[in-house]
């Protein structure tokens, strides 16, 4: 599973290490320039200012904190000098879901390029820091460790799990709906179902808000969910019904419609 694979983390660490070594490029006595990385790990090289000691590169070799440090730098690089949970939610929501028998395992998914400038800046910055990578026509987090090791994202995931479980349940319902030929039978749709999809649509407002009635521009993981949620939500007969998203009232059915 590439989401758990160690190679992306090793590549990120080697990149950071190379950047650190490159900073030590210095002139040498024979004239011209030589990259210090050529002698940095040569045990026969003279112990001079050209050599890089293990102490000097200890930071980049620390596997425990690299992802968290990179994520913090990426978030700041997007102009997020003041932490905002709503901004983080809007950025991470399209990138993360859950799986496993109990729907509690972090799963990554592809998002389409975000439509709003705040998320666009975050995406550019996370790509620059190699934490967001191209995947088909969309973008994907490089590894689950971004969610596990970055404290802000880990806290977000813990608070978000109930919503993510509900979302994944409705992905399964959407597949069943498709396997039935997208049946227009509404007899089994309950008011609770309508409230659930209203919450899901609210959660994706920043990601799906400019899609309109067409889901063609969405990533495959989201296209079916979007279509099914709209099908269920159109059965709402209570326009003033409040929508609750992550414990907060975010509007009423008439607004989502």
Task: Name the features.
257 residues; mainly alpha; two-stranded antiparallel sheet; two-stranded antiparallel ribbon; 10 helices; 8 strands; 11% strand
Description:
This protein is mostly helical and 257 residues long. Helices cover 46% and strands 11% of the residues. It contains 10 helices and 8 strands. It has helices at 7-22, 66-77, 85-92, 117-128, 145-149, 151-179, 191-203, 205-208, 220-233, 253-256; strands at 26-27, 33-34, 96-99, 105-108, 132-135, 138-141, 242-245, 248-252. The strands form 4 sheets. It has a two-stranded antiparallel ribbon with strand order 1-2. Strands 3-4 form a two-stranded antiparallel sheet. The chain has a two-stranded antiparallel sheet with strand order 5-6. A hairpin with a 5-residue loop joins strand 1 and strand 2. Helix 2 packs across helix 4, helix 6 packs across helix 7 (191-203) and helix 6 crosses helix 9. Residues 27-37 have low confidence and may be disordered.
Structural class of the secondary structure composition?
mainly alpha
| Helix content estimate | 40-55%
Strand ordering within the main sheet: 1-2
> What's the count of strands?
8
The helix/strand series, from N terminus to C terminus, equals HEEHHEEHEEHHHHHEEH
Strand proportion, as a percent range, falls in 5-15%
